[in-house]
Amino acid sequence: MAKATEKKKDEVILALKAIAEEKGISEEMLFETLEDAMIAAYKKNYVNSGAQNVRVNIDRETGEIKVYSLRQVVEEVMDPQDEISLEEAKEINPTYELLDFVENEVTPANFARVAAQSAKQIVTQRIKEAERSILYNQYHEKEFDVITGTVQRKDKGNVYISLGKTETVLTPSEQIPGERYEFNDKILLYIVEVKQNPKGPMISVSRTHPGLVKRLFEKEVPEIYEGIVEIKAISREAGSRTKIAVHSNDPEVEPMGACVGPRGTRVQNIVNELRNEKIDIIKWSKDPKEFIANALSPSKVLDVIIMEEGNSCKVIVDDNQLSLAIGKEGQNVRLAAKLTGWKIDIKSRKQYEAELEAKKEAEEAMALEETELTADVENDDAAIVDADDVSMEEIQDEDAVETDDADL
Hints:
By secondary structure, the protein is an alpha+beta fold. Among the domains are: 2-138, N Utilization Substance Protein A, Chain:P, domain 4; 142-206, CATH 2.40.50.140. The protein has helices at 2-23, 27-45, 86-92, 111-140, 210-220, 222-225, 255-260, 265-273, 288-295, 322-326, 331-340, 349-407; strands spanning 54-58, 65-74, 83-85, 101-105, 146-155, 158-162, 167-170, 186-195, 202-206, 229-237, 241-248, 278-283, 301-306, 312-317, 343-348. It has a 5-stranded antiparallel beta sheet with strand order 7-6-5-8-9, covered by helices on one side. Strands 1, 2, 3 and 4 form a 4-stranded mixed beta sheet that branches. Strands 10-11-12 form a 3-stranded mixed beta sheet, sandwiched between helices. A hairpin with a 4-residue loop joins β6 and β7 (167-170). The protein starts with a helix and ends with a helix. Residues 371-408 are annotated as: Disordered. Its main location: cytoplasm. Belongs to the NusA family.
């Protein structure tokens, strides 16, 4: 019988170790969870035993379970079940001091069997909580990074993707337009956010986020991963086009060439992953004029005029470059504006010259109007002066006439 009991204890230890390994949970946490569960089971099933302040200990090697009542050492005993006087404690062991706890074994017969039934639900729940916590921490560390998932199913536009021990959903707004997702496809996803949830971590993923492009470049370009080449800005319209501004911290390393790679292999790998999305790699500059001109690639810019109001500028291009600078449906200039953070107004050389001519004519007309207005004012002033002079003479003449009439 003793051998059977010992074997059962060994099986408990082995089972705990197996669970810990399978679930990725620490063995000590499992032992502590089981001990807490058994304390609750003791208080529930042995309510009349007298001792309610107890400690349960499971031997980590043999699996033997023991229950100890705890009484605190105090000066004046108010509750004999939970307290013991200092004098009585020292009789048990002279080393006891005030506020220490005196332990006394009170393990009931067949306690392991009774406690196991009551503790099962608590242990199972705690294991699930631990699993959820481990999963959350695992994916929270990968927030703003990329992971590989496996397509499981599609429903109402949503794509359900397995990440191994958990699942996530790629919503329609986070899918690359026109991209197809088939069962068992392996796809790369960008983790936008990870939230804790009672049912497990909620992992928000995306295929359209600019961060996906950034991480792909970091994986493909060693110079970016090592910090030699730096990604300064990204603007993206997923499935169509991306602009990425790069800068080299080493004068001997050409940033655009490093990103393109030998024979274009590096950037082509990224383009393939993004289903042939076009990528413009441009050189970043701290000079806004140069940066804006570079951002409008592949068009050639003649001049960039920084406006006084806000972050706005006027860009001048050759007449035959206007449509290229603007792009299809305004995409090129729109992405350039997002990339640089500047409001961009593009004009062809002819439009700009016409605008300057119109402005010049307007200024000349205004100047002429001001000149004429000044002349009119001067004439009015002269007329007033003349009128005043004539009036005085007329008054003098009238006075003279009146004097002659009086003499008569």
